[in-house]
Amino acid sequence: MTQTTPAVSFTGAVKAYGPVSAVDGVDLDIARGETVALLGRNGAGKSTTIALLLGLHKPDAGTVELFGTVPERSVRAGRVGAMLQEGRAVPRVTVGELVSFVASRYPAPMPVARALELAGIAGLAGRRVDRLSGGQTQRVRFAVALAGNPSLLVLDEPTAALDVEARHAFWDSMRAYARNGHTVLFSTHYLEEADAHADRIVVIDRGRIVADGTGEELRRSAGGNLVCLDLAGRAPDGLALLPGVRSVEVRGGRARLRTDDSDATVVALAELGAIRGLEVAPASLDDAFLALTSRGTETGTGAETETGTETETRTETETERETV
Fold first, then answer.
1. Are 103 and 148 in contact (CB under 8 A)?
2. Which of 9, 143, 163, 221 has its CB 3.0 to 4.6 Å from that of 65, i.e. a possible disulfide?
């Protein structure tokens, strides 16, 4: 094993539950020192991917390695720390006692005071874990994940239950940890967090990786710009055939055209006399995510018009984000 060996390596990894392939041929390398965000809708395969990475499940086919060896060996060696969504508070144990106990199980742990400080809970060391708020409990989980001073930190929805101020404090701590050369993989529903704090964003859908790149690269993949206009009572027929248009979405009398060439699209709209309430803006990461994970059916032109099914997908995604 050398320093060029990836921190994380999936090669053709497959995991199925009965007829459902939760992970379906995933190939993914994460270099040492990288911070990578894992995005996907509920049920897309994120949790199973993380479970395979941590050695909680074994792949049915393919391989998963951490630092060039099987996950179980890296976990036992204390090279991996994980902050998972689920878990019950330990009764009658203080925050300091819990983090101290976890740290004692590792060969080269982080000083407990430092773990508490990074997690923003130094003032809670004497409080019982089962008497904390949801946000405080989430930060305790972060301190527990840091306790072993791991080379790889895996965070599953780490800012769930945190208010805006606590979220900012968390990411400050995470970046401070990553700057010391540690590898971080986190899943999130907050697209702006992935864009702001990850070197790469990996999008998984139906158990497969559908995109892997920077936020800017993902935005470009969704179509360079959005052209929005009022339909003013006219039908949206033909909009998908305009130059540069990749998809059309209609909401309450307003059309949103995802286009690779906004200038050509606007000129064509002008020729149709269809410029009303015109707006041109760069595609957002939300647009890219929805395009990459859309359940809509493509038309023969390669462009897609939002159907009832696609609207459900958009609503589902927005609801997931609101409830996190």
1. yes
2. 9
CB atoms within 10 A of CB 295: 15
HSE at residue 89, side-chain half, CA atoms within 13 A, is: 19
Measured distance CA(313)–CA(321) in Å, rounded:
13
pTM: 0.78
Beta strands in the chain (DSSP E): 8-17, 20-30, 35-39, 61-66, 80-83, 152-156, 183-187, 200-205, 208-213, 225-230, 245-251, 254-259, 279-282, 304-305
Q: Write down the domain spans for the chain.
A: 8-218, 221-323
Who's near 72: CB < 8 A, 6+ residues apart? 55
CA-CA distance, 185 to 8, in Å (whole number)?
9
pLDDT tens-digit series, residues 82-141: 998 777 778 899 999 999 999 999 999 999 999 999 999 999 999 999 999 988 999 999
Q: Which residue has the tokens 């994970």?
A: 293
Q: What topology does CATH give the domain 221-323?
A: Alpha-Beta Plaits (3.30.70)
Q: Which of 201, 167, 186 is nearest to 85 (CA)?
A: 186
Rounded to the nearest integer, the mean pLDDT of the chain is 87
Superfamily of domain 8-218: P-loop containing nucleotide triphosphate hydrolases (3.40.50.300)
